[in-house]
Amino acid sequence: MTIRRLFVANRGEIAVRIIRAAKSLGIETVQAYSEADRDMLAVKLADEAVCVGRPAARHSYLDAAGLVSAARKAGCDAIHPGYGFLSENAEFAEMVESFGMVFVGPKADTIRRMGDKAAAREAAIAAGVPVVPGSQGRVADVEAALTAAETIGYPVMIKAAAGGGGRGIRIAETPEELRRLAPQAQSEAQAAFGDGGLYLERVIGNARHIEVQILGDGTRAIHCFERECSLQRRRQKVWEEAPAACLDEATRARLCASAVALAENVGYRGAGTLEYLYDEPTGAFYFIEMNTRIQVEHPVTEMITGIDLVAAMIRIAGGEPLPVTQDQVTRTGHAIEVRVNAEDPAAGFLPSPGTVESLSVPADPAVRFDGMVYEGYTVPPFYDSLLGKLIVHGATRGEAIDRMAAALEGFTLTGLKTTVPLHKALAADPDVRAGKAHTRFLEGWLAGNPAFNPPKAAQ
Questions:
Q1: Residues acting as catalytic residues
Q2: Once rounded to an integer, what is the mean pLDDT over residues 168-179?
Q3: For residue 115, which of 88, 301, 385, 405 is within the disulfide window of CB 3.0 to 4.6 Å?
Q4: What average pLDDT does this structure show over 148-169?
Q5: Residue 294's closest CA among 271, 264, 322, 315?
Q6: Confidence tier at 126 by pLDDT (50, 70, 90)
Q7: Positive or negative torsion for Cα 14, 20, 26, 27
């Protein structure tokens, strides 16, 4: 291992996760934090912490030059970008390596090609992987988007070229909506990723969201099977599973093989995820984008394969070969993750920052909580609402759902509102238990559920 001292250029639960993985490898850690995050858990766990600016992300976690300067001053030889912020910013990766440090992720050229969602579509087409009909790369402006949409056909999905995590996405049913929503998506993408570029895709109704986890060393790649993330609210995933119960073995094999082929075709290095839409009636799948970073939902893959993905990407960045061969990657049982957000689901999912009064996680080896909170911690209002992820494992999907229901009953976090009530209701829902959910399921389910659809005056 050539990495001795790792700079964590992120915050929240992923910063905690990176620090724990680095410590397991004997690597010292330096945590970046904004003025609003000086009390966060990652600061307490790291060997050293450095303030990198004011609370607004553009003055701290999106300040590439400031982060690189801080890492150099702290004597670090590598930077882990986590997810979001600058994790898929090629210029940042290039800047890190230009100062002789290791970027824990793919090469800058690969990020440009695959982290840019529009460019990734072109790479997939070149590799023979089916894609959803969409624009030819980025659209230059609203007029170009309107022209492209006429060819694609409405409804269209407006997507952030540099994005992920559901941000910068809108659905336009008509040209008038496209003209109105495109500037909104552009502003959101610019704020979240420092890049307001957009592209378009045709909307495929009632599709499943399936994604394949891969690891690459720049030459070879392997897959760690797939996840299903179809339960989404406003394109934000709320419940994730591995494996995808809707796939038969033949389809799973073709899907995972296509992901490995595409990853090897672009010389991918590190951990990455290829996302697809799956049309269950026809059995067809379409590549939609690649996330050139670790994913929020990576723990469900770790639970069924036993592979520490964050440690693996650090080891690969340090120059080691892939930790396992494809035939050594096996899956056992079924895992589910739910996102515990500081939001009030009974009040239209309003943000609920505040102070954690009590926190208790069930003591069960099949239950895991990847979090950023502790008792007495005050959640700042400047960032996304994710507090942590509750993850369970079971021998079967049914057992995993039962274990999740029990874990949610035993999970306590008081002092602020969270999305736990939503997850309890989902765990009890017959359609969710039967595996009938698709990407548009949750929006309709919420609209028909009075507990999560209060009158406007009550919100």
A1: 293
A2: 92
A3: 88
A4: 84
A5: 271
A6: confident
A7: positive
- Has this prediction a pTM greater than 0.85? yes
Full strand arrangement of the beta sheet holding 102-103: 48-53, 28-34, 5-8, 78-80, 102-103
Q: What is the pLDDT of residue 1?
A: 54
Query: Which class for 177: exposed (0-12), middle (13-18), buried (19 or more C-beta within 10 A)?
Result: middle
Q: What is the DSSP letter of 163?
A: -
> How far does Cα 353 stand from its chain's mean position?
22
Provide DSSP, 406-430.
Answer: HHHHH-EEESS--SHHHHHHHHH-H
Return the pLDDT at 456. Answer: 62
Token pair recorded at residue 426: 């989902």
**Contact of 226 with 271, CB cutoff 8 Å:** no
Give the contacts of 100 (CB within 8 A, at least 6 positions apart): 77
Q: Looking at the predicted structure, is the pLDDT value of residue 457 above 70? A: no
CA dihedral 439, 441, 443, 447 (to 10 degrees): 170
Q: Tell me the C-alpha to C-alpha distance, in Å, between residue 437 and each of 96, 102, 242, 332, 431.
A: 42, 41, 14, 23, 7
37 vs 29: CA distance, rounded Å: 17
Residue of 152, 151, 148, 205 lying closest to 179 (CA atoms): 148
* Both tokens assigned to 212: 């394949």
Residue 408, pLDDT > 90, answer yes
- When pLDDT is averaged across residues 363-388 and rounded to a whole number, the result is 96
The contacts of residue 34 (CB under 8 Å, 6+ apart) are: 11, 51, 52, 53, 54, 55, 57, 59, 60, 61, 382
